[in-house]
Design brief:
This protein has 4 helices and 2 strands. It has 109 residues and is mainly alpha-helical. It has a domain at 19-72. The protein has a two-stranded antiparallel sheet with strand order 1-2. A hairpin with a 2-residue loop joins strand 1 and strand 2 (79-81). The radius of gyration is 18 Å and the shape is elongated. The termini are far apart. Pfam families: CDC50 (PF03381).
């Protein structure tokens, strides 16, 4: 086959479209590292907004707690094929939806 070759696969029993799941996130928090409105974050990210001592979790919400990580490899005639993982994110996500300087805070607590 001549490239590029695009691969699609489907997951079973992965319910990321459930109402509570998709609503449990703070877009403002994901765009701006300095966004720290506790009431707004708590409302947007219920039930995963704060730690036991009340500190804000960054990123907050159920979506942040359910990172999907899959591993795959391809081969042809027992030779490994390199998979290009560059530019797989949508331009709108990279340029406007998520901040490039937002890093986890209190996430492991």
């Amino acid at each position: 086959m001549k490239g590029p070759i695009h691969v699609y696969y489907q997951l079973e029993n992965f319910y990321q479209n459930h109402r509570r799941y998709v609503q449990s996130r703070s877009d403002q928090q994901l765009r701006d590292k300095d966004y720290k409105d506790p009431k707004a974050v708590a409302k947007a990210c219920d039930p995963e907004a704060t730690t036991g001592d009340g500190s804000l979790i960054v990123p907050c919400g159920l979506i942040a707690w359910s990172l999907f990580n899959d591993t795959y490899a391809f081969s042809v005639n027992k030779k490994s094929v390199t998979v290009n993982k560059k530019d797989i994110a949508w331009a709108s996500d990279k340029n406007s939806k998520f901040g490039s300087n937002v890093f986890p805070v209190n996430f492991q607590k």
